[in-house]
Amino acid sequence: MDENGRLIRDVQEENSEAPTFSNLDPTTSDAQAMGGNSTLCIWGTNISVNDTISNFKMFLKEFSKKYRMWADGMTQEETQAEEDAETKEYVEMMQQMLTLGVTCLNLDFRNLKAYPPTKKLWQQAQDYPQDIVTLMDQAIKDVMYSLAEDMMTRERRSQSSTAGPNSQNTAVPSSDPPVPSSDRMGSEAATPRADDSAEIDWCQEVQKRQYRVRLFGLDSTVNMRELNPSDVDKIVAIKGLVIRTTPILPDMKDAFFKCQVCNHTVKVDIDRGRIAEPTECPRPICKSQNSMQIVHNRSGFADKQVIKLQETPDSVPAGQTPHSVSMCAYDDLVDMCKAGDRVEVTGIFRASPVRVNPRQRTVKSVYKTYIDIIHIQKVDKKRMGIDVSTVEQELSEEMTNTIEQTRKVSEEEEEKIKATAARPDIYELLSRSLAPSIFEMDDVKKGILLQLFGGTNKSFEKGGSPKYRGDINILLCGDPSTSKSQILQYVHKIAPRGVYTSGKGSSAVGLTAYVTRDPETRQLVLESGALVLSDGGVCCIDEFDKMSDATRSVLHEVMEQQTVSIAKAGIITTLNARTSILASANPIGSKYNPNLPVPQNIDLPPTLLSRFDLVYLILDRIDETNDRRLARHLLTQGEEILPIEFLTSYISYARTNCQPRISAEASSELVSAYVEMRKLGEDVRAAERRITATTRQLESMIRLAEAHAKMRLSDTVTRSDVQEAVRLIKSALKQAATDARTGLIDMSLLTEGTSSSERRRKADLKNAVLSLLDDMTRQGQAARYSEVVRRMGEQSSISVEANEFAEAIRGLEQEGSVMVVGEGARRSIRRVTGV
């Protein structure tokens, strides 16, 4: 039997007198049975166990990068020009593993194919992964042990050379084991030395550890809906979106039983998920029936986690719902990914029987499938598709600083990024490269570009203050067919993490989290919604105006505190939703009315509208010159732009490596710009001041300035960054917060829904109605409603609409100044005076 419970058959070579299992006496031992010139093979195949192990050992020791270069199409001359072509890649990795105490080796599957002696092993590993991977684990442990011995030998030689020939403590070569023993003569031999113990530790540590080979990099990935019975027990690679991960579950590996009569103990291995509980005590003098009881704290357990993987939205065929697959992660692969991660998983596709009744062993004819994970590779744009290796995950907090934590960017790519950042027109170049098929809208593109870079998240935990968000929220509203949805889809493609959703097709629980019953444990669990899955990325919401009020209400907390608070079905928790929101909305009447403010045009509550850092109006204006330029742009598109892959890498590099701080000059510029914007509300002709900027605009300026500095790969926010942030804020406010009556900026339009001039006009109308009623009636008497309307229209220099007059009367009635009696044409208004 091998470690997985599969039989390893014994193939007798020709002309060999070695006994076989078929003709041996039942009392023959395993050692006798394995004697002779026989070859161990994997059950049901002619694959030699010894050949597989020796080939893989040779691969680990001899593989160099030149083989992969040749497989990738490089010529002999190009390979020789590379400095690291002869580097023994896996020897260096295993030496690092030995030094750091890491137990997993990430092995690129294509390297096995590129190395000629293991090309056959590459095919065998795809067909019989359960057995081949087990043999690889055994082989890597042997190689690690030999490396440990070599390291001990080198250390012993270096210590000998350091001590010198005249030293009294020079070690004498001996055939005795390196373990100090009291039986050896002399106190020096009986006392353990520091260097001896260090030498012993290398081999002992290798013996104690369980080494694993993590295969990844298959030639192609399989779509989830294409998995079929022919893939069972084969190695597959699939890509998808993690939608749920369970807590860590204990998975029993071996059970420990104890006899309640004689206290005899026995260990039982798990065979295919079943514990063969002893029915009687195996001790010959006891033989008690049904006396064995399991002892849980002495049984062996491993960490297990069930992960639900779903097809990504871009890979789902039209008109179909996304498929999902369950996966099992063990040991160090637990918690390698979380909900919302886009991952590529390499594993073994398995099928397990389902019992008709849990109390009976009868199984159904339809099996349940899942994937046993071998390797998880995150393919988030934020991580630029780089494998977040198990080496980094296994390190303790003390060792984290010894390994390079920055994402692996090639030197050529890093030099290209820095050279591009040094260009004086980098801002214009990046904004042109963002959605290049969309004409003009320069300020909109620049705002969205800074949203992708994001500001710096700041936390003031010492002072007890909450953290300040660095994510930027943007709203696009305007006429139909103005490329709003195209911009959202483009941003969704290049955003690090994110979900694209539509307003009408989203519910409150679909955006935040909903309670469902786990099919495995039958317990109530939380399923993450779109905003939680977008944690750390951008959530694109189309048709924002068509959301229900209940759905929009959950966004208030997300957009400012960046959390989602849940209290339902006995689950009380707070989930992170650190996401930037990019939303688009259409006007109520399908055409934007410039005479109405933004809240009345798009039917959004002012409290939600004020949480957007930038609100852009995208209007479809008829202009022949502009239309000709647009048509010419669609036909030519000849401007210099950056490829989408490089743009994504540039944004990822900036987000990872740049956390700019505000300089003194930038701070003073921010203060002066904020005060200047506040001064715009001063009007000597009006008793009430207009609000032209709030503290939210100041915070927005800080975030945009930090994003602009991050775009330049700068660690410091300068005056120019602040000036560009102020320009973007003013440009957006000029469109979205301009009072249609006065033509002046008024933040009350966004924060309250009405402008200060509108409030003044309503107050003046109320006062005029009261004075008119005082003239028309005496105390206690009433005036006809229609007569008051007529007289009001005659004496007012500005026409008063019927609905405005009715609203003024309702307001006065609520204040208790007037009373409306009667109905229809008989209505009359009575002035109420205080007693």
Report on this model:
The chain is α/β, with parallel strands linked by helices. The chain folds into 4 domains: 138 residues, no CATH class; 181 residues, Nucleic acid-binding proteins (OB fold (Dihydrolipoamide Acetyltransferase, E2P), Beta Barrel); 231 residues, Rossmann fold (3-Layer(aba) Sandwich); 76 residues, Arc Repressor Mutant, subunit A (Orthogonal Bundle), CATH 1.10.10.10. Helix content is 38%, strand content 18%. Strands 5-10-11-13-12 form a 5-stranded mixed β-barrel. The protein has a 5-stranded parallel β-sheet with strand order 15-18-21-14-22. The chain has a 3-stranded antiparallel β-sheet with strand order 25-27-26. α24 packs parallel to α26. The chain starts with 7 loop residues before the first strand and ends with a strand. The N terminus is likely disordered. Keywords: ATP-binding, Coiled coil, DNA replication, DNA-binding, Helicase, Hydrolase, Nucleotide-binding, Nucleus, Phosphoprotein. It holds the Pfam family MCM. Component of the MCM2-7 complex.
